[in-house]
Amino acid sequence: GQSLEQPSEVTAVEGAIVQINCTYQTSGFYGLSWYQQHDGGAPTFLSYNALDGLEETGRFSSFLSRSDSYGYLLLQELQMKDSASYFCAVGNAGNNRKLIWGLGTSLAVNP
Amino acid sequence: EPEVTQTPSHQVTQMGQEVILRCVPISNHLYFYWYRQILGQKVEFLVSFYNNEISEKSEIFDDQFSVERPDGSNFTLKIRSTKLEDSAMYFCASSRGQVSGNTIYFGEGSWLTVV
Fold first, then answer.
1. What is the pLDDT, as a whole number, of residue A1?
2. A108, B12, B70, B76: which has the fewest Cβ within 10 Å?
3. Where are the beta strands (DSSP E) in A1-111?
4. Tens of pLDDT, residues B22-64
5. B81-104 burial, b if ≥16 CB within 10 A, otherwise e?
6. Alpha-carbon Rg for chain A in angstroms
7. Closest Cβ opposite residue A95 in set B33, B99, B105
């Protein structure tokens, strides 16, 4: 079967750094994506890792270790507007036409 | 910036009725998707569509559901004989290609309430 695990909730303060982990089990792994969703709005793409290592995009970075079936999203210099749900998702069976999603991590950023 | 647009934003329908949700994908994109999110739950893949046919579908996408691209711009999801458990946010998405996850763009969603 296919599944992803990520923490359900994370709390942090403004200016801090937070790491949201994601472990996955899937056949035909084809990349790990991260999406942000505010209050049930449209999921917005944040980052994608096809190969091992760290991808950096501004305040957000994402890491992948295929041998460990593990990745994480790192958010730096947290701002109040970063309060949202963060989903990891994996491509299925050798392509990304079908993304399998985790349950999401609700991040609360406090002053 | 180009975006995926969806209508209606919210629809209330009686159980057993048919519903059509409409989407206009980004114009130069070739792959189209419908996803569903029941309140408070994860996003679930329903179907992907390419070259005027379904390319992948999930176990959720049974005979009750159908998709169509009636013209060069619209992409629709039809739900026949709606059930209470079909109440969810339905997201349309599109991508230019299939090979990289960073090209999937989502619309704002259509919130369906079945009563």
1. 65
2. B70
3. 3-5, 9-13, 18-25, 32-37, 44-49, 53-57, 60-65, 70-75, 84-92, 95-101, 105-110
4. 999 999 898 999 999 999 888 898 999 988 899 888 899 999 9
5. ebeeebbbbbbbbbbeebebbbbb
6. 13
7. B99
Mean pLDDT, consecutive 10-residue stretches, chain A (111 aa), reads: 89 97 86 89 89 93 95 97 94 67 94 93
Q: Please answer yes or no on whether A40 and B98 come within 8 Å at the CB atom.
A: no
Please tell me if residue B9 touches chain A, with a CB cutoff of 8 Å.
no
Nearest CB to B43 within list A31, A43, A96: A43
Chain B residues with CB under 8 Å of A96 CB are 95, 98-101, 104
